[in-house]
Design goal:
Blueprint: H1 2-15, H2 19-33, H3 38-51, H4 55-68, H5 75-81, H6 88-99, H7 104-112, H8 118-132, H9 154-162, H10 186-204, E1 214-216, H11 220-229, H12 234-242, E2 244-246, E3 248-250, E4 259-261, E5 291-297, E6 300-305, E7 317-319, E8 330-333, H13 336-346
Antiparallel strand pairs: 1-2, 3-4, 4-5, 5-6, 6-7, 7-8
Helix pairs in contact: 1-2, 1-3, 3-4, 4-6, 5-6, 6-8, 7-8, 7-9, 10-13
């Protein structure tokens, strides 16, 4: 009965001309048959990727095919896919998953080919970096589709090939301060709570070539640059030094446009467009000089005041809406630690 149902779905997929109906048929195929008839389902999907009549779905199916493949049975399909402009991007991962290190040579050739689209060349280098644990992707966007031509580290890839494709050391997780594990003070407790919530986000998605959503220790260079710019309130400076946000971005009901919490490495440059002219880099006269932008949500700045303190030594956080013609700051939180809790609950 299962074979008959699978054959019927096969026919319906190839006959369907409506994209929405095709999507539902494809999901039914995966849900009902992928677990028990994986190879048969793969045969159907790869056949459609080769010859199906809905051209955009031939491309979309590649992620499902890569997910289902195990072993080298479909290596020839992925080798063929690398030669198809619409399929090559995901064909990279499929070939690596199918034949592992034997995919290195054809993927290096793909990355070196000037006739290949930039995003496919970048994908080849990114996937080779991940698989081999080599740093070809260090500090580059996690999505290779955003890489620029000058960011392709082709010479390093070719040197790696000449050395016989050695495995690399991979990336270490950013260093965290010990008090995140055993917090005592009110600030430490807030930072530890935020770190736990960020860790859940990292479990869902993390690329250590460009790590995001971490609280890590700031470098002495970054802190020196900050100290040369301002005399920060002690509690905020302490936060930056020991729990500096590293590409921390949260969203949800509290921050529907997403909130970016600045770290020590970006705090000075983050003032551009607010206190400092983004192009000419001069101070903007209309900006209150004692306000330091510590975060933004969709362009709305969140600031601390250099000369304000609450009774317990904390400091209030102010917010203004952009696009209003002038900055009108309102009190957002009575203290910075409460602001950290708000961000944690949104994470």
């Amino acid at each position: 009965m299962a074979v008959t149902a699978l054959a019927a779905l096969h026919r319906k997929l190839f006959d369907e001309t409506d994209g929405s109906k095709f999507a539902r048929l494809k999901e039914r195929l995966l849900k009902k048959h992928a677990a028990d008839d994986r190879l048969a389902v793969l045969d159907i999907l790869t056949a459609y990727a080769r010859d199906g009549q809905l051209l955009h779905w031939r491309t979309f199916l590649m992620t499902d095919i890569v997910h289902l493949v195990e072993g080298s049975q479909h290596a020839a399909f992925f080798a063929w896919a690398l030669e198809q402009p619409a399929l090559a991007y995901w064909g990279v991962d499929g070939l690596l998953k199918s034949i592992g290190v034997d995919a290195y040579a054809p993927l290096v050739a793909l990355a070196a080919s000037g006739a290949t689209r930039l995003e496919v060349r970048a994908k080849a280098i990114k996937s080779l970096a991940v698989f081999s644990r080599q740093p070809f992707d260090q500090d580059l966007p996690s999505d290779p589709g955003h890489w620029k031509a000058e960011q392709l580290r082709l010479s390093a890839v070719l040197d790696w090939q000449a050395d016989g494709y050695p495995d690399g050391a991979g990336y270490k997780a950013p260093a965290k301060h010990e008090t995140l594990a055993k917090p005592r003070s009110r600030l430490q407790v807030a930072a530890a709570f935020l770190e736990r919530k960020l860790a859940l986000r990292r479990q869902r998605e993390q690329d250590l070539a460009q790590p995001s959503n971490w609280l890590t220790m700031a470098s002495a260079k970054d802190m020196a640059e900050i100290d040369a710019q301002w005399v920060l309130p002690e509690i905020y400076r302490h936060f930056l030094q020991f729990y500096s946000p590293l590409r921390v971005h949260v969203d949800g009901k509290r921050f529907p446009q997403g909130l970016h919490l600045y770290g020590a490495a970006e705090l000075v440059k983050a003032q551009h467009g607010y206190a400092v002219h983004a192009v000419h880099h001069h101070n903007i006269a209309s900006w209150q000089s004692k306000l330091v932008v510590i975060a933004d949500a969709g362009g709305d700045p969140y600031c601390v005041h250099l000369e304000e303190r609450s009774i317990d030594g904390d400091l209030p956080v102010y917010r203004a809406r952009h696009g209003a013609g002038e900055w009108r700051f309102e009190l957002h939180m009575d203290d910075f630690i409460d602001f950290l809790h708000e961000i944690a609950w949104a994470a």
